[in-house]
Known about the structure:
- The chain is mainly α and 590 residues long.
- Helix content is 63%, strand content 2%.
- A two-stranded antiparallel ribbon has the order 1-2.
- A hairpin with a 6-residue loop joins strand 1 and strand 2 (480-485).
- The termini are far apart.
- The chain crosses the membrane at residues 6-27, 51-70, 90-108, 129-151, 163-184, 191-209, 240-259, 271-296, 333-358, 379-400, 406-428, 435-451.
- Belongs to the sodium:solute symporter (SSF) (TC 2.A.21) family.
Amino acid sequence: MAIHAGGLVAIVVFYVLILFVGIxxxxxxxxxxxGKDGDRSERIMVGGRDIGLFVGGFTMTATWVxxxxxxGTAEYVYLPDFGLAWAQAPFGYALSLVVGGxxxxxxxxxxxxxxxxxxxxxxxxxxxxGLLFIPALMGEMFWSAAILSALGATLSVIVDINxxxxxxxxALIAIFYTLVGGLYSVAYTDVVxxxxxFVGLWISxxxxxxxxxxxxxxxxxxxxxxxxxxxxxxxxGDRWLWADNFCLLILxxxxxxxxxxxxxxxxSATYAQVLxxxxxxxxxxxxxxSVLIGAIGAxxxxxxxxxxxxPPKDKDESDMILPIVLQHLCPPYVSFFGLGAVSAxxxxxxxxxxxxxxxxxxxxxxxxxxxxxxxxxxxxxxxxLTIFVFGAFATAMALLTGSVYGLWYLSSDLxxxxxxxxxxxxxxxxxxxxxxxxxxxxxxLLLRIGGGEPYLKLPPFIYYPGWVTQERIHHLTGDxxxxxxxxxxxxxxxxxxxxxxxxxxxYLAKYLFESGMLSHKYDFLxxxxxxxxxxxxxxxxxxxxxxxxxxxxxxxxxxxxSASLAGTFTNTEVLSDDGASSPEAFHNEN
Length: 590
């Protein structure tokens, strides 16, 4: 297999730059955010809570603007049956960041949490926190694997090097600087990566537009030239499906540790909100070159290019339209610069997901569920180990699993239908408890899995109204694949059902136990009776046989401003100027 020297040099230079910035960030901030007790684990997880607006805005934008974002946006604009009308990610994720900033960033940051799972474990207990960790971990791991897989294919298109080698090297670099510097290294490398994405793609667009094989994209937007117009349209029968997917992006984009890790690293609750709004604007800006590249692909006579007579859509390579445009419509030196942009996008998302997964495991599973007496040094080593393990797992999946995108689609749906309603309940609904949380979890899981997943060839056992049988033609082999498409907005319905089940069963359990209709001995989750008696007890009292984690049991959180906390989630004026300090206080106000 031939290796393009120029492309290889471009990759080496870019990767060395990223590695240098990651190590420099770790060295520069090695003592930042570490208090008198040397709490290095929190510095790794949330950067000492002193991430500024500039770096914070870049790193939060880079969280969403990854390989899947830029490649996926270009793909949907290019596809004849979809077009810009179905390229929902830019507006969906931008609105997700706006909603997150308006309603979720302030309560999460002001209460001093360290991970997204903290409020669940505080209110619903260790076991429920462990259950909610499963879809959260699946989402992060499958997302990392999916974008690493896309990176390998992208590099092989432009540079013609071994896919496995490129994926492994990229993953190793991301794992290494994440191991060394934690969130600081991830955040500072995100600044460089986002700059490379922006410059790399924008440099490529003028060259691709001026290629003789490309027709006027303003004409092909509304008229059929080589394929249907790239603006696309939404058929009346697909409106509910479109709305379902759009709601998934907006609301399902909130309950991710990669997002809240940035929120919780901000120096104040107000800064956390501002970071969300800046990232929303950044997502829209960064999507523009991807949209243009997709439109260019739809406006190209591929028979006049070095690609071949058949367009990418007829070779089942629509998902590679961005690197194909860079390779065949731009000069070699420009395509190699664009290659750096693509690999930057992938690494900026992969390192964030790996760090997020290891943070949740080290704190919410290892420390709070099993080893509450663990030292800070022990937690740091657990994080380092899990960063390596989760990174290796994501890399192995990218190389060995053919259905990695299907796994990510399903896991992201589970984040939407399970974790979002739980987050809504724990932050804003008074009186919910562990019984309601379990019921909501089960309802959401069954209703979503029941709808099936075509990408995993998982057949449905619940046929929602309006379902149809669709066919997918594999152009290279001529094979025809049939699958069930659910046009009913069953994902959003599953999410609402999960939320209603949580609230309903919480109040039902509370009524049954407090009215005496059920004996207190049946409160096996200690979610109603023990909680009620705890309200009149000293908050410092530890109940050794109690599954729920009370304030004094939580690992302490130290502020960058050295403001001490009585417990993990105790509110102080340094942290908050609003409302209740924790879900427990909020739920017990009555």
